[in-house]
């Protein structure tokens, strides 16, 4: 078992006591728990924090898992010492702004993330602990139109999650030690990728009302933004471009996803 990636999540805000209408929040049917994965602190906030804030406000339990400690980020050489702690604190503040219940930051090295059986098992462990019906991750396919979106760690994170949710998550024989711990196999339905190439986008969520929350979450990552105003302008333009691309209108801010279903009513049995 990889000890560095199995520490308990840090609890954040509690779920709101009054649940809003889930359908009005574009939450897929029968989803009450979501786990969002990112390669670095700030990935989830760039890719999906508006949607997650919308769902959290509707009563969905939202959890963040960040695979690397972000130690290769930032711009100031004088800030290298203690950067890992800074980025963890930034991610916790951002997740709190979004309304997440917990955040886990793993100890993988920034810039060196790669698919492995160890990390696949760590993902399976987290998912069996939290039991989400919907999982979010960076898209594992390179985007040649926006090359910098396809950081190797992003691609690796998406691939690790994709491998974990099928078949290992639902196969009780994949990691018998997890079954022995009481972490039982189950079938995931929804797997959504953010940061997808435009040709793969098939789900757009209106986050116009959540745009201030998204920008607040992104501002939490001050170590990564040498020009906060430029970052906010870029993000806002991109969201509105996605709203128009998704047919929601030119003034609608939207987050875009490649939404897939791992298991449906038509899925046959077997691993």
TrEMBL record:
Keyword Metal-binding among UniProt keywords: no
Gene Ontology annotations of biological process type: glycoside metabolic process
GO MF terms, alphabetically ordered: hydrolase activity, acting on carbon-nitrogen (but not peptide) bonds, in linear amides
Origin superkingdom: Bacteria
Keywords: Zinc
Pfam family, one: PIG-L
Record-given protein name: PIG-L family deacetylase
Organism of derivation: Galactobacter valiniphilus
Lineage of the organism: Bacteria, Bacillati, Actinomycetota, Actinomycetes, Micrococcales
């Amino acid at each position: 078992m990889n000890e560095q990636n199995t520490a308990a999540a840090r609890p954040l805000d509690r779920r709101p006591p009054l649940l809003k209408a889930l359908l009005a929040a574009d939450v897929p049917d029968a989803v009450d728990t979501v786990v969002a994965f990112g390669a670095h602190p700030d990935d989830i906030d760039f890719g999906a924090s508006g949607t997650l804030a919308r769902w959290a406000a509707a009563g969905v339990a939202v959890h963040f898992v960040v695979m690397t400690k972000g130690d290769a980020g930032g711009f100031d050489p004088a800030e290298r010492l203690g950067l890992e702690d800074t980025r963890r604190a930034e991610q916790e503040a951002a997740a709190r702004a979004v309304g997440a219940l917990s955040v886990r930051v793993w100890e993988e090295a920034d810039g060196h993330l790669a698919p492995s059986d160890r990390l696949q098992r760590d993902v399976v462990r987290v998912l069996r602990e939290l039991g989400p019906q919907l999982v979010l991750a960076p898209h594992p396919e390179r985007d040649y139109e926006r090359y910098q979106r396809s950081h190797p760690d992003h691609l690796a994170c998406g691939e690790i999650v994709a491998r974990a949710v099928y078949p290992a998550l639902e196969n009780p024989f994949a990691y018998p030690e997890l079954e022995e711990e009481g972490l039982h196999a189950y079938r995931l339905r929804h797997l959504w990728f953010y940061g997808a190439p435009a040709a793969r986008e098939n789900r757009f969520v209106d986050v116009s009302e959540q745009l201030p929350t998204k920008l607040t979450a992104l501002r939490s990552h001050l170590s990564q933004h040498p020009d906060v105003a430029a970052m906010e302008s870029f993000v806002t333009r991109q969201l509105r471009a996605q709203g128009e691309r998704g047919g929601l209108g030119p003034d609608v801010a939207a987050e875009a996803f490649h939404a897939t279903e791992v298991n449906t009513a038509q899925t046959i049995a077997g691993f």
